[in-house]
Design a protein that fits this description.
Two copies of one chain form a homodimer. By secondary structure, chain A is an alpha+beta fold. Helices cover 54% and strands 8% of the residues of chain A. In chain A, helix 1 (14-25) links the parallel strand 1 (5-9) and strand 2 (31-34). In chain A, helix 4 (89-115) runs antiparallel to helix 5 and helix 7 crosses helix 9. The A-B interface holds A 50, 59, 62, 64-66, 69-70, 72-73, 76-77, 89-90, 92-93, 96-97, 100-101, 134 and B 50, 59, 62, 64-66, 69-70, 72-73, 76-77, 89-90, 92-93, 96-97, 100-101, 134.
């Protein structure tokens, strides 16, 4: 039986793009269902009744939710083409640690620092340089967070590639400059130029409009 | 070379206990370093410079942080004795999904519902029955969340075994009653009676005192 792979996403969801990129790296064919979060489809509610959120990957009728969980599922299920996670348990633990750090610390702080207000915004802006320093260090001696090749942790951090400069513009600030974070800046460029991701980037003007509505 | 395994924890940390239980299920010898979070040791700060938190597992000098990441590390490193995660990628994804649900939804809500105040407390109390219903459903047809044997997801939910009735007493409410959640109630009893966990339970009176100070 041929695999049937469906991805429920929105046009701009940064968690969904991780899955798009993973499926493209694995060379998998898949159907995309674009959701309108103001009017969620009955299928999305059926497949993710707990969180009612995208992304959901449906593989041969079985739903998998939560983007980092989906990445691991994809890597374990289609394990031959382009491995995403390292084989070594310690390196794997490090990749999982930093992906969690991204989701719980870095990404929310950059959101608050660009779109937030008052004390929350100020506090986030203080934290970000230390967070980004940690991230920059993970690239020392490597092309990608995954090493020579792009991998799981790159996909977790991948939202920065297309969203940092949007959030910088909307928030009227700079988070990543080339002098302070040279490795991260180079990584953003390398990630952006990966041929199989070419069609994946959300429209920048639409993103600017979307996030301006949040401020 | 014999493995050197050290666990940095506190006496009551519910995330640390997951690791204690996992190491005991695997039959591993390990040294325990009890931290005082008001006066963290230089070693803890060295091993977990990002979060400065317990638990940290140090295996042959290498630190692994974040309890769910540590559980996967332990299972991958010592994979023969008592497997913690299912082999099947879909079942593994389900276990990871519910562990994340515990950490992000169930556990914080029960904390707020017992120790919080005002609107935050009221909102949490409304959510909990729905959350617990999802958890109860995961036990249908099974002894443990891991199936026939105790596993990764049991350890993630394991804080309920010794802490729910403490939080119920301190918060003056009942979260889990036997009539509404019979499977979860039975699971708590079964988990509590596992022989290798016998020495692991934190002192109940000390827990009551600790959490009363939070209200």
């Amino acid at each position: 039986m041929a695999d049937e792979v469906k991805l429920f996403r929105t046009w701009s969801s940064r968690y969904s793009l991780r899955i798009v990129w993973a499926l493209k790296l694995k060379g998998l064919e898949f159907d995309t269902i674009f959701e309108d979060l103001a009017n969620k489809s009955p299928l999305l509610l059926q497949y993710n009744p707990v969180h009612k959120k995208v992304p959901v990957l449906v593989h041969n009728g079985k739903p998998v939710c939560e983007s980092l969980v989906i990445l691991e599922y994809i890597d374990e299920t289609w394990n031959e083409a382009h491995p995403l996670l390292p084989k070594d348990p310690f390196q794997k633990a490090e990749a999982r640690f930093w992906a969690k750090f991204n989701d719980e610390k870095l990404l929310p702080s950059i959101g608050k620092a660009s779109l937030g207000h008052g004390k929350e915004k100020e506090e986030a802006r203080v934290l970000i340089p230390e967070y980004l320093k940690h991230v920059e260090e993970q690239l020392e001696g490597n092309n990608f967070f995954g090493g020579e090749e792009i991998g799981y942790l790159d996909l977790a951090f991948g939202w920065m590639v297309y969203l940092i400069d949007v959030l910088e513009e909307v928030g009227g600030t700079t988070f990543i400059n080339k002098e302070k974070y040279p490795l991260l800046s180079k990584w953003i460029q390398k990630f952006y130029e990966i041929p199989v991701f070419k069609e994946s980037w959300p429209d920048r003007d639409k993103l600017i409009t979307k996030y301006q509505n949040y401020v």
